[in-house]
What does this fold into?
Amino acid sequence: MINVCDIQVMKPLLAEHGFHFSKAKGQNFLIASWVPEQIALDSGVDENTGVLEIGPGIGPLTQQLCLRAGRVCAVELDTRLKPILAQTVGEFENLEILWDDVLKQDIPALVKEKFAGLRPAACANLPYYITSPILSALLEAECFDQVTVMVQKEVAQRIAARPGTADYSAFTVFCQYYAEPECLFDVPAHCFLPQPKVTSAVITLRVRKDRPWNVENQDIFFRTVRASFAMRRKKLSNGLASGFPQLGKEGAAEVIAACGFDENIRGETLGIPEFAKLSNGIARRLK
Ligand code: SAM
It folds into this structure.
């Protein structure tokens, strides 16, 4: 197996194919082989797993996943990588590469088609310019057991944040609604070529089998969450009134009181059970 993380191997390989990194496609390739190895180990992938990889690049993580998984399906946007991947991962019979934009995929249909009889998981060193849309699509697909990704460290901190902290956001609530996140390890910038300006981190999200909050209307739940964070410095009732104009300020204050919350409460201190209670109150009022 070619060690694609070895810079003495990678540089001539890229030069042979006239490949230049595309900043627009978020291309920062791993040059420290312990990283893809550790990601694959921590992703819990085994021969009973079907893994969707996003952005294989020249294949360092793909190799590690193919060594462990039952099947790997990798989606890569940049077709210039075709001849390189043929050399670096062409030997793996359990691998299929789809040359397309991951955001254009019907992920549940893809998982059903490619991973029948296997435990579906997703694993990737994500292109950072589309971290949120990809993670949202993976979680909303509701078909993976576990999603393990490398992201910017600050994004990992946001995903795993607790209520009342500066990192806590609507995206935190979104991710934690679907999954339980665990930050695994940091990856310094010198582990990539070209070096990004930020530190990266690997995070795993174990998708919840059930959600114990009795959310009556998921759409209204997420609208409530977004509205609650939209005006961080103002009272919750202001945010809710602007997110739900039909409610008005008075209606918003009434729902907050009916939930038993203090009128001066701030959205960023609420956990998922409190958002569920609040959104159920709003849903009933809007009926
Ligand atoms: N996995 C490789 C590694 O760890 O060295 C490359 C990771 S690089 C950060 C991100 C990869 O995602 C690149 O190969 C890039 O071409 C690919 N990519 C960017 N946008 C994409 C998209 N919309 N759909 C699929 N792949 C994409």
Remarks:
- The CA atoms of residues 14 and 20 lie 7 Å apart.
- The beta strands are 29-30, 49-54, 71-76, 95-99, 119-125, 146-152, 179-187, 192-193, 200-207.
- The pocket of S-adenosylmethionine is lined by residues 25-30, 54-57, 60-61, 75-78, 101-103, 125, 127, 130 (CB under 6 Å).
